[in-house]
What we know:
The chain is α/β, with parallel strands linked by helices. It contains 11 helices and 17 strands. It has 2 domains: about 5-35 and about 195-355, Vaccinia Virus protein VP39 (Rossmann fold, 3-Layer(aba) Sandwich), CATH 3.40.50; about 40-175, CATH 2.40.50.1070.
Amino acid sequence: xxxxxxxxxxxxxxxxxxxxxxxxxxxxxxxxxxxxxxxxxxxxxxxxxxxxxxxxxxxxxxxxxxxxxxxxxxxxxxxxxxxxxxxxxxxxxxxxxxxxxxxxxxxxxxxxxxxxxxxxxxxxxxxxxxxxxxxxxxxxxxxxxxxxxxxxxxxxxxxxxxxxxxxxxxxxxxxxxxxxxxxxxxxxxxxxxxxxxxxxxxxxxxxxxxxxxxxxxxxxxxxxxxxxxxxxxxxxxxxxxxxxxxxxxxxxxxxxxxxxxxxxxxxxxxxxxxxxxxxxxxxxxxxxxxxxxxxxxxxxxxxxxxxxxxxxxxxxxxxxxxxxxxxxxxxxxxxxxxxxxxxxxxxxxxxxxxxxxxxx
Length: 360
Ligand SMILES: C[S@@+](CC[C@H](N)C(=O)[O-])C[C@H]1O[C@@H](n2cnc3c(N)ncnc32)[C@H](O)[C@@H]1O
């Protein structure tokens, strides 16, 4: 922060070029800039303090609440929700969880904003104590939300430094937050992953779709597919697309999008990406991978390296694991890369790389 935006962006390009310097075939396209403020479509807020005076933000080193309602990277439409959240905490007498004392009920509020303006609000509670109050006040709460919004309650009974638990109850009749990126409808269920910067997510999917269409494969695997952004953008008549993702919630959301687009040759499966590839018994013409920060497994790199896959698109949020994985993909030539600034005001960025199998 406090670094002029274009200097931030250049710093990320320099960092990425440095990490990928061994690949002398690689050309960098101009980086994709983002809005430098208000770009985050997700606010993961810790609730602390008291019922009368809750803090909405993060915890300090001693576990006490620090208010971050005015954080400039959060979309203003989400920031506008914080007074509503505060009012409901007071009116329903919700007791914020006190981390040092391990007491209280309301741990977090997780908000996601769609490009349509609709919001998903997830209340993360320790126990069911406040559940009835939240459910009974749903009509009044929904009145404060934009049309198309979704409200749920998540239970995190353990005293753990994680954001959410496994059990989730959706309170609204609507169960998915709907986005529309590049004209493609996408659905997000409460526990599915969605890229945190909608503007850059749309640019990322456009870039991948352009590279896929340039080489026009008959079959594409989208590994680590989340709610299906890459697969849905890669679909075309005469082309089969397969999205593989461990979160069954995300897979269900991707299937809903594919059905609404009438895509008959788009298939989404809840499975480990490595297991899927190693047991598929066939290889597609192109593979897109977009793994978590740890990158792809050594087994998946090995399988890809020995496969008949002609093109790989690797979208990474960690250029360090990307550099390691590109080294393992020694039978492929990295051709093009583009830094996509998913996370302005931080050192983080997304980078997308196009590879082609090297001539034998
Ligand atoms: C960086 S996100 C990318 C999601 C998606 N491609 C998108 O654009 O939103 C990584 C995804 O990988 C999923 N994931 C994590 N480990 C996995 C594994 N072993 N096999 C398949 N998917 C996995 C996560 O649930 C998450 O949705």
